[in-house]
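Replying to the earlier thread about multi-chain prediction with a worked example.

Input:
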Amino acid sequence: MLELRSELFSALSETRNENIGALLSAKKEGKKVIGHYCAYSPVELALAAGAIAVPLCGNKKEPFLAADNDLPPNLCPIIRSSYDLAVSDTCPFFHASDMIVAETTCDGKKKMYEILQRIKPIHVMNLPQIPDLPMSITLWKSEVRRLKTAIEKELGVKITDEALREAIHVTNEEARARKELFDLNRNKPALLSGKDLLVIVAQAGYSIDRMSGVALIDRLTEEIKKKAQQGYHVGNEKTPRILLTGTPLGENDDKVVSLVEEYGGLVVAMEICGGYKSLDLRIDETDCRDPILLLAEKQVGIPCSVMSPNKKRIQLLERMIHDFAVDGVVDLTWHGCHTYNIESYWVADLVKNKLEKPFLHLTTDFSDADRETMRVRIEAFLEMI
Amino acid sequence: MPFVAGVDIGSVTTKAVILDCAENNEILSYHIVPSEGDVVALGRQSMEAALRKIKKKAEVKYIIATGYGRVSADFANSIKTEILCHGKGAHAMIPSARTVIDIGGQDSKAIRLDEEGNLIDFAMNDKCAAGTGRFLETIARALGMKVKHLAEVAAKAGRPCEISSTCTVFAESEVVTLRAHRNEDCNIVAGLHRSISKRVVAMVKTIKPKKEIVFTGGVAKNEGVKKALEAELDTEILVPEYPQIVGAYGAALIAKEEFLAI
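Result:
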Protein backbone atom coordinates (compact mmCIF):
# COMPACT_ATOMS: atom_id res chain seq x y z
CA MET A 1 0.00 0.00 0.00
CA LEU A 2 2.84 2.34 0.75
CA GLU A 3 5.03 2.77 -2.27
CA LEU A 4 4.12 4.84 -5.21
CA ARG A 5 4.36 2.86 -8.44
CA SER A 6 5.19 5.12 -11.31
CA GLU A 7 7.91 5.37 -13.93
CA LEU A 8 8.46 9.01 -13.10
CA PHE A 9 8.88 8.16 -9.43
CA SER A 10 11.36 5.41 -10.29
CA ALA A 11 13.27 7.89 -12.44
CA LEU A 12 13.30 10.37 -9.57
CA SER A 13 14.52 7.75 -7.11
CA GLU A 14 17.46 7.01 -9.40
CA THR A 15 18.57 10.66 -9.66
CA ARG A 16 21.62 10.23 -7.46
CA ASN A 17 22.82 7.02 -9.10
CA GLU A 18 22.10 8.21 -12.63
CA ASN A 19 24.02 11.40 -12.09
CA ILE A 20 27.25 9.71 -10.98
CA GLY A 21 27.97 8.77 -14.60
CA ALA A 22 26.82 12.14 -15.91
CA LEU A 23 29.06 13.84 -13.37
CA LEU A 24 32.12 11.92 -14.48
CA SER A 25 31.52 12.62 -18.17
CA ALA A 26 30.92 16.31 -17.45
CA LYS A 27 34.21 16.39 -15.58
CA LYS A 28 36.01 14.83 -18.55
CA GLU A 29 34.64 17.67 -20.67
CA GLY A 30 36.23 20.15 -18.30
CA LYS A 31 33.31 20.96 -15.98
CA LYS A 32 34.26 21.78 -12.40
CA VAL A 33 32.52 20.24 -9.41
CA ILE A 34 31.87 21.98 -6.11
CA GLY A 35 30.80 19.75 -3.21
CA HIS A 36 28.84 21.10 -0.26
CA TYR A 37 27.70 19.60 3.04
CA CYS A 38 24.75 21.64 4.11
CA ALA A 39 21.78 23.81 3.16
CA TYR A 40 23.76 26.85 4.34
CA SER A 41 26.08 26.51 1.33
CA PRO A 42 25.06 29.04 -1.33
CA VAL A 43 24.98 26.61 -4.28
CA GLU A 44 23.86 29.51 -6.45
CA LEU A 45 27.49 30.72 -6.54
CA ALA A 46 28.67 27.35 -7.84
CA LEU A 47 25.95 27.31 -10.49
CA ALA A 48 26.69 30.92 -11.49
CA ALA A 49 30.35 29.95 -11.92
CA GLY A 50 29.29 27.29 -14.40
CA ALA A 51 30.22 24.50 -11.99
CA ILE A 52 28.23 21.46 -10.90
CA ALA A 53 27.13 21.56 -7.26
CA VAL A 54 26.78 18.23 -5.42
CA PRO A 55 25.70 17.39 -1.86
CA LEU A 56 28.22 15.40 0.21
CA CYS A 57 26.33 14.81 3.45
CA GLY A 58 26.79 11.19 4.50
CA ASN A 59 24.30 8.67 5.80
CA LYS A 60 26.17 5.43 5.28
CA LYS A 61 25.50 2.80 7.95
CA GLU A 62 28.13 1.66 10.46
CA PRO A 63 30.85 0.52 10.73
CA PHE A 64 32.76 3.77 10.36
CA LEU A 65 36.18 2.16 10.43
CA ALA A 66 38.07 5.16 9.08
CA ALA A 67 36.14 7.62 11.23
CA ASP A 68 36.64 5.56 14.38
CA ASN A 69 40.40 6.11 14.16
CA ASP A 70 40.12 9.87 14.26
CA LEU A 71 36.75 10.87 15.74
CA PRO A 72 35.08 10.13 19.10
CA PRO A 73 32.48 7.33 19.00
CA ASN A 74 29.74 9.43 20.63
CA LEU A 75 29.74 12.00 17.84
CA CYS A 76 26.64 12.33 15.65
CA PRO A 77 26.52 9.60 12.95
CA ILE A 78 26.09 12.13 10.12
CA ILE A 79 29.44 13.68 10.93
CA ARG A 80 31.16 10.32 11.40
CA SER A 81 29.60 8.95 8.24
CA SER A 82 30.49 12.04 6.17
CA TYR A 83 34.07 11.84 7.38
CA ASP A 84 34.24 8.08 6.80
CA LEU A 85 32.99 8.32 3.22
CA ALA A 86 35.56 11.01 2.45
CA VAL A 87 38.57 9.40 4.13
CA SER A 88 37.88 5.91 2.80
CA ASP A 89 37.35 7.43 -0.66
CA THR A 90 34.01 5.67 -1.11
CA CYS A 91 31.89 8.72 -1.98
CA PRO A 92 32.03 9.39 -5.74
CA PHE A 93 30.82 12.95 -5.19
CA PHE A 94 33.57 13.77 -2.70
CA HIS A 95 36.07 12.13 -5.02
CA ALA A 96 34.89 14.22 -7.98
CA SER A 97 34.82 17.54 -6.13
CA ASP A 98 37.37 20.12 -7.26
CA MET A 99 36.41 22.37 -4.39
CA ILE A 100 34.54 21.74 -1.15
CA VAL A 101 32.45 24.26 0.74
CA ALA A 102 31.44 23.83 4.37
CA GLU A 103 30.23 25.98 7.24
CA THR A 104 30.73 26.34 10.98
CA THR A 105 27.25 24.96 11.61
CA CYS A 106 27.58 22.75 14.69
CA ASP A 107 30.66 22.12 16.84
CA GLY A 108 31.04 18.53 15.63
CA LYS A 109 31.05 19.46 11.96
CA LYS A 110 33.43 22.39 12.17
CA LYS A 111 36.00 20.39 14.15
CA MET A 112 35.59 17.42 11.79
CA TYR A 113 36.28 19.70 8.79
CA GLU A 114 39.59 20.71 10.37
CA ILE A 115 40.73 17.09 10.30
CA LEU A 116 39.18 16.39 6.91
CA GLN A 117 41.31 19.21 5.44
CA ARG A 118 44.23 16.77 5.45
CA ILE A 119 42.53 14.97 2.55
CA LYS A 120 41.26 17.91 0.52
CA PRO A 121 41.15 21.65 1.08
CA ILE A 122 37.79 22.85 2.38
CA HIS A 123 36.50 26.39 2.21
CA VAL A 124 34.88 26.82 5.62
CA MET A 125 32.41 29.68 5.95
CA ASN A 126 31.88 31.40 9.28
CA LEU A 127 28.15 30.96 9.89
CA PRO A 128 26.53 33.45 12.29
CA GLN A 129 24.21 31.78 14.80
CA ILE A 130 21.91 34.47 16.12
CA PRO A 131 19.62 34.95 13.13
CA ASP A 132 17.76 38.00 14.41
CA LEU A 133 20.83 40.22 14.76
CA PRO A 134 21.33 42.58 11.78
CA MET A 135 25.09 41.94 12.02
CA SER A 136 24.44 38.26 11.25
CA ILE A 137 23.30 39.24 7.77
CA THR A 138 26.31 41.57 7.44
CA LEU A 139 28.68 38.78 8.47
CA TRP A 140 27.07 36.17 6.24
CA LYS A 141 26.99 38.55 3.32
CA SER A 142 30.74 39.08 3.66
CA GLU A 143 31.21 35.32 3.92
CA VAL A 144 29.17 34.73 0.75
CA ARG A 145 31.32 37.37 -0.95
CA ARG A 146 34.51 35.70 0.30
CA LEU A 147 33.28 32.40 -1.14
CA LYS A 148 32.52 34.12 -4.44
CA THR A 149 36.12 35.35 -4.64
CA ALA A 150 37.45 31.92 -3.68
CA ILE A 151 35.38 30.16 -6.36
CA GLU A 152 36.43 32.74 -8.97
CA LYS A 153 40.09 32.17 -8.07
CA GLU A 154 39.84 28.37 -7.89
CA LEU A 155 37.89 27.98 -11.12
CA GLY A 156 39.44 30.91 -12.97
CA VAL A 157 36.04 32.42 -13.83
CA LYS A 158 34.12 35.60 -13.13
CA ILE A 159 30.73 35.30 -11.43
CA THR A 160 28.46 38.00 -12.85
CA ASP A 161 25.35 39.36 -11.13
CA GLU A 162 23.40 38.24 -14.15
CA ALA A 163 24.58 34.63 -13.82
CA LEU A 164 23.84 34.78 -10.10
CA ARG A 165 20.28 35.96 -10.72
CA GLU A 166 19.84 33.15 -13.19
CA ALA A 167 21.10 30.66 -10.56
CA ILE A 168 18.68 32.14 -8.01
CA HIS A 169 15.88 31.50 -10.48
CA VAL A 170 16.98 27.84 -10.71
CA THR A 171 17.05 27.22 -6.95
CA ASN A 172 13.75 29.09 -6.58
CA GLU A 173 12.23 26.77 -9.15
CA GLU A 174 13.61 23.73 -7.34
CA ALA A 175 12.05 24.88 -4.09
CA ARG A 176 8.74 25.67 -5.78
CA ALA A 177 8.54 22.31 -7.52
CA ARG A 178 9.45 20.35 -4.39
CA LYS A 179 6.99 22.32 -2.28
CA GLU A 180 4.19 21.60 -4.74
CA LEU A 181 5.06 17.91 -4.64
CA PHE A 182 5.15 17.79 -0.83
CA ASP A 183 1.96 19.87 -0.63
CA LEU A 184 0.06 17.06 -2.36
CA ASN A 185 -0.04 15.52 1.11
CA ARG A 186 -2.28 18.26 2.43
CA ASN A 187 -4.86 15.99 0.86
CA LYS A 188 -6.74 13.77 3.26
CA PRO A 189 -6.20 10.85 2.72
CA ALA A 190 -2.58 11.49 1.79
CA LEU A 191 -1.04 10.86 -1.62
CA LEU A 192 2.54 10.12 -0.59
CA SER A 193 3.74 7.75 2.11
CA GLY A 194 6.62 8.59 4.44
CA LYS A 195 8.75 6.09 2.55
CA ASP A 196 7.97 7.91 -0.71
CA LEU A 197 8.86 11.20 0.97
CA LEU A 198 12.20 9.78 2.14
CA VAL A 199 13.07 8.85 -1.43
CA ILE A 200 12.28 12.37 -2.61
CA VAL A 201 14.23 13.93 0.27
CA ALA A 202 17.29 11.76 -0.37
CA GLN A 203 17.49 12.75 -4.04
CA ALA A 204 17.48 16.50 -3.39
CA GLY A 205 20.27 18.37 -5.11
CA TYR A 206 21.72 15.54 -7.20
CA SER A 207 20.40 16.61 -10.62
CA ILE A 208 23.29 17.93 -12.67
CA ASP A 209 20.88 19.44 -15.17
CA ARG A 210 18.92 21.25 -12.50
CA MET A 211 16.03 22.47 -14.64
CA SER A 212 15.39 18.97 -16.00
CA GLY A 213 15.25 17.83 -12.36
CA VAL A 214 12.60 20.51 -11.77
CA ALA A 215 10.67 19.36 -14.85
CA LEU A 216 10.74 15.76 -13.63
CA ILE A 217 9.28 16.76 -10.26
CA ASP A 218 6.61 18.90 -11.94
CA ARG A 219 5.61 15.97 -14.18
CA LEU A 220 5.48 13.66 -11.16
CA THR A 221 3.27 16.11 -9.26
CA GLU A 222 0.89 16.32 -12.23
CA GLU A 223 0.84 12.55 -12.54
CA ILE A 224 -0.03 12.05 -8.86
CA LYS A 225 -2.78 14.68 -9.13
CA LYS A 226 -4.27 12.74 -12.03
CA LYS A 227 -3.96 9.45 -10.15
CA ALA A 228 -5.72 11.10 -7.21
CA GLN A 229 -8.63 12.07 -9.44
CA GLN A 230 -8.93 8.40 -10.32
CA GLY A 231 -9.08 7.50 -6.65
CA TYR A 232 -5.42 6.93 -5.75
CA HIS A 233 -4.47 7.62 -2.12
CA VAL A 234 -2.30 6.26 0.66
CA GLY A 235 -3.90 5.17 3.92
CA ASN A 236 -7.46 6.28 4.55
CA GLU A 237 -9.43 9.01 6.33
CA LYS A 238 -8.68 7.46 9.71
CA THR A 239 -4.95 6.81 9.27
CA PRO A 240 -3.01 8.79 11.90
CA ARG A 241 -1.13 11.59 10.12
CA ILE A 242 2.35 12.02 11.52
CA LEU A 243 4.77 14.90 11.04
CA LEU A 244 8.44 14.01 11.24
CA THR A 245 10.88 16.69 12.34
CA GLY A 246 14.51 16.77 13.48
CA THR A 247 17.94 15.91 12.15
CA PRO A 248 18.67 15.25 8.45
CA LEU A 249 17.67 11.82 7.12
CA GLY A 250 18.82 9.79 4.15
CA GLU A 251 17.04 7.13 2.20
CA ASN A 252 18.69 4.38 4.25
CA ASP A 253 17.56 5.91 7.54
CA ASP A 254 14.08 4.49 7.23
CA LYS A 255 13.95 2.75 10.62
CA VAL A 256 11.58 5.19 12.28
CA VAL A 257 9.48 5.95 9.21
CA SER A 258 8.97 2.27 8.42
CA LEU A 259 8.04 1.46 12.03
CA VAL A 260 5.47 4.29 12.05
CA GLU A 261 3.97 2.95 8.84
CA GLU A 262 4.18 -0.70 9.93
CA TYR A 263 1.92 0.16 12.88
CA GLY A 264 -0.67 1.91 10.79
CA GLY A 265 0.49 5.52 10.94
CA LEU A 266 1.55 7.60 7.97
CA VAL A 267 4.33 10.16 7.85
CA VAL A 268 2.65 12.87 5.78
CA ALA A 269 5.20 15.66 6.10
CA MET A 270 8.87 16.08 6.97
CA GLU A 271 10.29 19.23 8.50
CA ILE A 272 13.89 18.22 7.80
CA CYS A 273 16.75 19.15 5.47
CA GLY A 274 15.82 18.21 1.91
CA GLY A 275 12.21 18.06 3.12
CA TYR A 276 10.06 21.08 3.90
CA LYS A 277 12.58 22.96 6.06
CA SER A 278 13.75 25.69 3.70
CA LEU A 279 11.23 25.48 0.86
CA ASP A 280 9.50 28.70 1.87
CA LEU A 281 12.76 30.62 1.65
CA ARG A 282 12.57 31.66 -1.94
CA ILE A 283 14.20 34.89 -3.08
CA ASP A 284 11.98 37.55 -4.64
CA GLU A 285 13.36 37.68 -8.18
CA THR A 286 12.06 41.22 -8.69
CA ASP A 287 14.15 42.48 -5.77
CA CYS A 288 16.93 44.56 -7.40
CA ARG A 289 19.26 44.66 -4.39
CA ASP A 290 22.70 43.01 -4.49
CA PRO A 291 22.13 39.28 -5.15
CA ILE A 292 24.83 38.45 -2.58
CA LEU A 293 22.72 40.21 0.05
CA LEU A 294 19.60 38.38 -1.12
CA LEU A 295 21.39 35.05 -0.73
CA ALA A 296 22.65 36.00 2.72
CA GLU A 297 19.18 36.99 3.89
CA LYS A 298 17.67 33.77 2.59
CA GLN A 299 20.20 31.50 4.21
CA VAL A 300 20.30 33.08 7.62
CA GLY A 301 16.56 32.35 7.63
CA ILE A 302 17.04 28.57 7.40
CA PRO A 303 15.45 27.20 10.61
CA CYS A 304 18.24 24.79 11.60
CA SER A 305 18.79 24.04 15.28
CA VAL A 306 22.30 25.55 15.12
CA MET A 307 20.53 28.93 15.22
CA SER A 308 19.71 30.48 18.55
CA PRO A 309 16.98 31.13 19.31
CA ASN A 310 15.49 29.16 16.42
CA LYS A 311 11.94 30.55 16.58
CA LYS A 312 11.40 30.16 12.85
CA ARG A 313 11.44 26.36 13.18
CA ILE A 314 8.70 26.42 15.79
CA GLN A 315 6.63 28.79 13.64
CA LEU A 316 7.15 26.57 10.60
CA LEU A 317 6.14 23.48 12.58
CA GLU A 318 2.97 25.14 13.80
CA ARG A 319 2.02 26.07 10.23
CA MET A 320 2.80 22.57 8.96
CA ILE A 321 0.83 20.84 11.73
CA HIS A 322 -2.14 22.94 10.68
CA ASP A 323 -1.68 22.72 6.90
CA PHE A 324 -1.09 18.97 6.81
CA ALA A 325 -3.83 18.19 9.42
CA VAL A 326 -1.25 16.43 11.59
CA ASP A 327 -2.38 14.14 14.44
CA GLY A 328 1.00 13.65 16.13
CA VAL A 329 4.64 14.71 15.88
CA VAL A 330 7.77 12.56 15.98
CA ASP A 331 10.97 14.46 16.69
CA LEU A 332 13.85 12.29 15.50
CA THR A 333 17.35 13.23 16.57
CA TRP A 334 20.65 11.42 16.13
CA HIS A 335 22.74 10.55 19.16
CA GLY A 336 25.26 13.30 19.73
CA CYS A 337 23.32 15.99 17.85
CA HIS A 338 23.18 18.38 20.77
CA THR A 339 21.40 21.23 19.02
CA TYR A 340 18.43 19.20 17.79
CA ASN A 341 18.33 17.13 20.98
CA ILE A 342 18.14 20.21 23.19
CA GLU A 343 15.76 22.04 20.87
CA SER A 344 13.34 19.14 21.30
CA TYR A 345 12.31 20.96 24.49
CA TRP A 346 10.72 23.73 22.42
CA VAL A 347 9.19 21.34 19.91
CA ALA A 348 7.59 19.41 22.79
CA ASP A 349 6.41 22.68 24.29
CA LEU A 350 4.66 23.62 21.04
CA VAL A 351 3.16 20.20 20.31
CA LYS A 352 2.25 19.00 23.80
CA ASN A 353 1.50 22.18 25.68
CA LYS A 354 0.25 24.62 23.05
CA LEU A 355 -1.37 22.35 20.45
CA GLU A 356 -2.12 19.45 22.85
CA LYS A 357 -1.17 16.76 20.38
CA PRO A 358 0.77 13.54 20.97
CA PHE A 359 4.52 14.01 20.75
CA LEU A 360 7.39 11.53 20.67
CA HIS A 361 11.07 12.39 20.87
CA LEU A 362 13.34 9.60 19.68
CA THR A 363 17.12 9.55 19.88
CA THR A 364 18.80 6.91 17.77
CA ASP A 365 21.47 6.35 15.12
CA PHE A 366 21.73 4.66 11.69
CA SER A 367 22.00 1.13 13.12
CA ASP A 368 19.24 -1.41 13.66
CA ALA A 369 20.47 -2.36 17.15
CA ASP A 370 17.70 -0.42 18.91
CA ARG A 371 14.89 -1.31 16.52
CA GLU A 372 12.90 -3.04 19.30
CA THR A 373 13.20 -0.14 21.73
CA MET A 374 12.12 2.22 18.95
CA ARG A 375 9.27 -0.15 18.08
CA VAL A 376 7.64 -0.10 21.52
CA ARG A 377 7.80 3.71 21.72
CA ILE A 378 6.35 4.19 18.24
CA GLU A 379 3.66 1.57 18.83
CA ALA A 380 2.61 3.20 22.12
CA PHE A 381 2.72 6.65 20.50
CA LEU A 382 0.30 5.46 17.82
CA GLU A 383 -1.89 3.82 20.50
CA MET A 384 -2.08 7.28 22.06
CA ILE A 385 -3.61 8.84 18.91
CA MET B 1 -19.22 -18.16 29.69
CA PRO B 2 -16.29 -17.46 27.35
CA PHE B 3 -12.89 -16.52 28.76
CA VAL B 4 -10.35 -14.00 27.54
CA ALA B 5 -6.65 -13.82 28.39
CA GLY B 6 -3.87 -11.27 28.65
CA VAL B 7 -0.32 -12.56 28.36
CA ASP B 8 2.62 -10.32 29.29
CA ILE B 9 5.88 -11.84 28.02
CA GLY B 10 8.45 -9.80 29.93
CA SER B 11 12.22 -10.03 30.03
CA VAL B 12 12.33 -11.68 33.47
CA THR B 13 8.89 -13.23 33.93
CA THR B 14 5.93 -14.16 31.78
CA LYS B 15 2.49 -13.49 33.24
CA ALA B 16 -0.97 -14.60 32.18
CA VAL B 17 -4.33 -13.36 33.48
CA ILE B 18 -7.73 -14.94 32.72
CA LEU B 19 -11.01 -13.01 32.83
CA ASP B 20 -14.54 -13.89 31.93
CA CYS B 21 -16.85 -11.38 30.29
CA ALA B 22 -18.64 -10.40 33.50
CA GLU B 23 -18.88 -6.71 34.25
CA ASN B 24 -16.81 -6.71 37.42
CA ASN B 25 -13.48 -7.40 35.64
CA GLU B 26 -12.50 -9.78 38.40
CA ILE B 27 -9.30 -11.77 37.87
CA LEU B 28 -10.35 -15.43 37.70
CA SER B 29 -6.80 -16.71 37.79
CA TYR B 30 -3.23 -15.77 36.96
CA HIS B 31 0.09 -17.49 36.54
CA ILE B 32 3.69 -16.29 36.57
CA VAL B 33 6.67 -18.18 35.14
CA PRO B 34 10.31 -17.15 34.71
CA SER B 35 11.07 -16.10 31.10
CA GLU B 36 13.52 -18.82 30.20
CA GLY B 37 13.67 -20.43 26.80
CA ASP B 38 11.16 -20.10 23.99
CA VAL B 39 9.10 -16.99 24.68
CA VAL B 40 6.15 -18.07 22.56
CA ALA B 41 5.90 -21.45 24.27
CA LEU B 42 6.19 -19.68 27.62
CA GLY B 43 3.32 -17.38 26.78
CA ARG B 44 1.11 -20.27 25.83
CA GLN B 45 2.13 -22.38 28.84
CA SER B 46 1.54 -19.58 31.35
CA MET B 47 -1.93 -19.07 29.90
CA GLU B 48 -2.74 -22.78 30.02
CA ALA B 49 -1.44 -23.00 33.59
CA ALA B 50 -3.66 -20.08 34.59
CA LEU B 51 -6.59 -21.75 32.89
CA ARG B 52 -6.04 -25.00 34.79
CA LYS B 53 -6.46 -23.11 38.06
CA ILE B 54 -10.07 -22.39 37.11
CA LYS B 55 -12.44 -25.16 38.02
CA LYS B 56 -15.03 -24.34 35.37
CA LYS B 57 -14.46 -25.81 31.95
CA ALA B 58 -14.42 -23.23 29.22
CA GLU B 59 -12.33 -22.04 26.33
CA VAL B 60 -10.24 -18.89 25.91
CA LYS B 61 -11.86 -17.00 23.06
CA TYR B 62 -9.59 -13.98 22.69
CA ILE B 63 -5.97 -13.30 23.66
CA ILE B 64 -3.90 -10.14 23.77
CA ALA B 65 -0.13 -10.42 24.10
CA THR B 66 2.12 -7.67 25.44
CA GLY B 67 5.68 -7.27 26.72
CA TYR B 68 8.95 -7.83 24.87
CA GLY B 69 7.86 -11.20 23.50
CA ARG B 70 4.62 -9.82 22.01
CA VAL B 71 6.06 -9.48 18.51
CA SER B 72 6.40 -13.27 18.16
CA ALA B 73 3.21 -14.27 20.02
CA ASP B 74 1.45 -16.11 17.20
CA PHE B 75 -1.20 -17.50 19.58
CA ALA B 76 -2.58 -14.03 20.30
CA ASN B 77 -5.47 -12.38 18.45
CA SER B 78 -3.66 -9.06 18.61
CA ILE B 79 -0.75 -7.38 20.38
CA LYS B 80 -0.55 -4.17 22.40
CA THR B 81 2.38 -2.38 23.99
CA GLU B 82 3.14 -2.89 27.67
CA ILE B 83 2.76 0.87 28.04
CA LEU B 84 -0.90 0.79 27.06
CA CYS B 85 -1.55 -2.42 29.05
CA HIS B 86 0.05 -1.19 32.28
CA GLY B 87 -1.96 2.01 32.07
CA LYS B 88 -5.17 0.10 31.46
CA GLY B 89 -4.52 -2.46 34.21
CA ALA B 90 -3.46 0.10 36.81
CA HIS B 91 -6.49 2.28 36.10
CA ALA B 92 -8.85 -0.68 36.45
CA MET B 93 -7.29 -1.71 39.76
CA ILE B 94 -7.07 1.85 41.10
CA PRO B 95 -9.50 4.13 39.18
CA SER B 96 -7.98 7.31 40.66
CA ALA B 97 -4.64 6.47 38.97
CA ARG B 98 -3.38 9.28 36.71
CA THR B 99 0.29 8.30 36.67
CA VAL B 100 1.81 4.83 36.56
CA ILE B 101 5.42 4.04 37.39
CA ASP B 102 6.32 0.60 36.14
CA ILE B 103 9.70 -0.89 36.96
CA GLY B 104 10.21 -4.18 35.24
CA GLY B 105 13.14 -6.46 34.56
CA GLN B 106 14.80 -4.55 31.77
CA ASP B 107 13.03 -1.25 31.52
CA SER B 108 11.19 1.33 33.52
CA LYS B 109 8.35 3.48 32.31
CA ALA B 110 6.27 6.41 33.42
CA ILE B 111 2.75 6.60 32.03
CA ARG B 112 0.20 9.44 32.19
CA LEU B 113 -3.49 8.63 32.02
CA ASP B 114 -6.62 10.72 31.71
CA GLU B 115 -9.75 10.24 33.85
CA GLU B 116 -10.90 7.33 31.71
CA GLY B 117 -7.56 5.58 31.85
CA ASN B 118 -6.56 6.52 28.30
CA LEU B 119 -2.86 6.86 27.59
CA ILE B 120 -1.90 10.53 27.16
CA ASP B 121 1.89 10.56 27.54
CA PHE B 122 4.75 8.29 28.48
CA ALA B 123 8.50 8.14 29.01
CA MET B 124 10.64 5.07 28.97
CA ASN B 125 14.12 3.96 29.90
CA ASP B 126 15.36 0.81 28.27
CA LYS B 127 18.72 1.88 26.94
CA CYS B 128 20.62 0.67 29.98
CA ALA B 129 19.93 -1.42 33.04
CA ALA B 130 20.12 1.46 35.54
CA GLY B 131 16.71 2.10 37.05
CA THR B 132 15.42 -1.42 36.38
CA GLY B 133 14.92 -4.71 38.18
CA ARG B 134 18.07 -5.99 36.52
CA PHE B 135 20.07 -3.34 38.35
CA LEU B 136 18.79 -4.54 41.73
CA GLU B 137 19.33 -8.16 40.76
CA THR B 138 22.95 -7.60 39.75
CA ILE B 139 23.77 -5.68 42.90
CA ALA B 140 21.96 -8.17 45.14
CA ARG B 141 24.09 -10.89 43.60
CA ALA B 142 27.26 -8.87 44.24
CA LEU B 143 26.20 -8.59 47.89
CA GLY B 144 25.32 -12.28 48.07
CA MET B 145 21.65 -11.57 48.80
CA LYS B 146 18.34 -12.54 47.31
CA VAL B 147 16.34 -9.75 45.66
CA LYS B 148 13.33 -10.49 47.85
CA HIS B 149 15.38 -9.74 50.99
CA LEU B 150 16.57 -6.29 49.85
CA ALA B 151 13.66 -4.36 51.37
CA GLU B 152 14.04 -6.13 54.69
CA VAL B 153 17.78 -5.35 54.81
CA ALA B 154 17.29 -1.72 53.79
CA ALA B 155 14.69 -1.20 56.53
CA LYS B 156 17.47 -1.32 59.11
CA ALA B 157 19.48 1.48 57.47
CA GLY B 158 20.54 4.40 59.64
CA ARG B 159 22.52 6.39 57.12
CA PRO B 160 22.03 5.29 53.49
CA CYS B 161 25.24 5.37 51.41
CA GLU B 162 25.61 7.72 48.44
CA ILE B 163 25.80 5.60 45.28
CA SER B 164 26.85 7.94 42.50
CA SER B 165 27.21 5.50 39.61
CA THR B 166 24.15 5.18 37.41
CA CYS B 167 25.71 2.45 35.28
CA THR B 168 24.99 -1.05 36.63
CA VAL B 169 28.54 -2.25 36.03
CA PHE B 170 30.10 0.71 37.80
CA ALA B 171 27.53 0.61 40.59
CA GLU B 172 28.49 -2.99 41.20
CA SER B 173 32.14 -2.10 41.70
CA GLU B 174 31.12 0.94 43.78
CA VAL B 175 29.16 -1.37 46.07
CA VAL B 176 32.15 -3.68 46.42
CA THR B 177 34.27 -0.66 47.36
CA LEU B 178 31.69 0.53 49.90
CA ARG B 179 31.78 -2.89 51.48
CA ALA B 180 35.57 -2.84 51.56
CA HIS B 181 35.28 0.41 53.53
CA ARG B 182 33.16 -1.51 56.04
CA ASN B 183 29.83 0.19 55.28
CA GLU B 184 26.92 -1.85 56.59
CA ASP B 185 24.88 -3.76 54.02
CA CYS B 186 21.66 -2.11 55.19
CA ASN B 187 23.07 1.33 54.36
CA ILE B 188 24.40 0.14 51.00
CA VAL B 189 21.06 -1.38 49.98
CA ALA B 190 19.11 1.67 51.13
CA GLY B 191 21.54 3.77 49.06
CA LEU B 192 20.81 1.61 46.03
CA HIS B 193 17.07 2.05 46.48
CA ARG B 194 17.59 5.78 46.66
CA SER B 195 19.80 5.71 43.55
CA ILE B 196 17.28 3.76 41.46
CA SER B 197 14.46 6.03 42.67
CA LYS B 198 16.33 9.23 41.75
CA ARG B 199 16.83 7.90 38.27
CA VAL B 200 13.23 6.80 37.83
CA VAL B 201 11.79 10.01 39.32
CA ALA B 202 13.85 12.13 36.90
CA MET B 203 12.09 10.25 34.10
CA VAL B 204 8.67 10.50 35.78
CA LYS B 205 9.01 14.28 36.07
CA THR B 206 9.33 14.64 32.28
CA ILE B 207 5.67 13.62 31.93
CA LYS B 208 4.40 16.01 34.65
CA PRO B 209 3.01 13.39 37.09
CA LYS B 210 -0.46 13.85 38.61
CA LYS B 211 -1.99 12.03 41.57
CA GLU B 212 -2.72 9.25 42.21
CA ILE B 213 0.60 7.72 41.37
CA VAL B 214 0.52 3.93 41.08
CA PHE B 215 3.63 1.76 41.22
CA THR B 216 3.59 -1.50 39.22
CA GLY B 217 5.95 -4.19 37.94
CA GLY B 218 8.03 -6.74 39.78
CA VAL B 219 10.11 -4.11 41.58
CA ALA B 220 6.94 -2.67 43.16
CA LYS B 221 7.02 -5.65 45.52
CA ASN B 222 10.10 -4.05 47.08
CA GLU B 223 8.84 -1.82 49.91
CA GLY B 224 12.25 -0.11 50.09
CA VAL B 225 12.05 1.17 46.52
CA LYS B 226 8.45 2.29 47.11
CA LYS B 227 9.51 4.34 50.14
CA ALA B 228 12.49 5.80 48.29
CA LEU B 229 10.22 6.81 45.38
CA GLU B 230 7.80 8.44 47.82
CA ALA B 231 10.67 10.38 49.38
CA GLU B 232 11.93 11.56 45.97
CA LEU B 233 8.45 12.50 44.73
CA ASP B 234 7.46 13.90 48.12
CA THR B 235 4.08 12.23 47.86
CA GLU B 236 2.40 8.95 48.67
CA ILE B 237 2.26 6.30 45.98
CA LEU B 238 -0.05 3.32 45.75
CA VAL B 239 0.86 -0.27 44.97
CA PRO B 240 -1.90 -2.60 43.74
CA GLU B 241 -2.34 -6.01 45.33
CA TYR B 242 -0.54 -7.88 42.54
CA PRO B 243 1.84 -5.33 40.99
CA GLN B 244 3.53 -7.91 38.78
CA ILE B 245 0.44 -8.86 36.77
CA VAL B 246 -0.88 -5.35 36.05
CA GLY B 247 0.32 -5.49 32.42
CA ALA B 248 -1.22 -8.91 31.82
CA TYR B 249 -4.44 -7.74 33.51
CA GLY B 250 -4.55 -4.66 31.26
CA ALA B 251 -4.01 -6.90 28.23
CA ALA B 252 -6.88 -9.16 29.37
CA LEU B 253 -9.17 -6.13 29.79
CA ILE B 254 -8.38 -5.01 26.24
CA ALA B 255 -8.95 -8.61 25.06
CA LYS B 256 -12.40 -8.49 26.65
CA GLU B 257 -13.23 -5.14 25.01
CA GLU B 258 -12.09 -6.35 21.61
CA PHE B 259 -13.87 -9.69 21.99
CA LEU B 260 -17.17 -8.06 22.94
CA ALA B 261 -16.84 -5.65 20.00
CA ILE B 262 -16.63 -8.48 17.45
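The first helix of chain A runs from residue 7 to 13.

Feel free to reuse this layout for your own posts.
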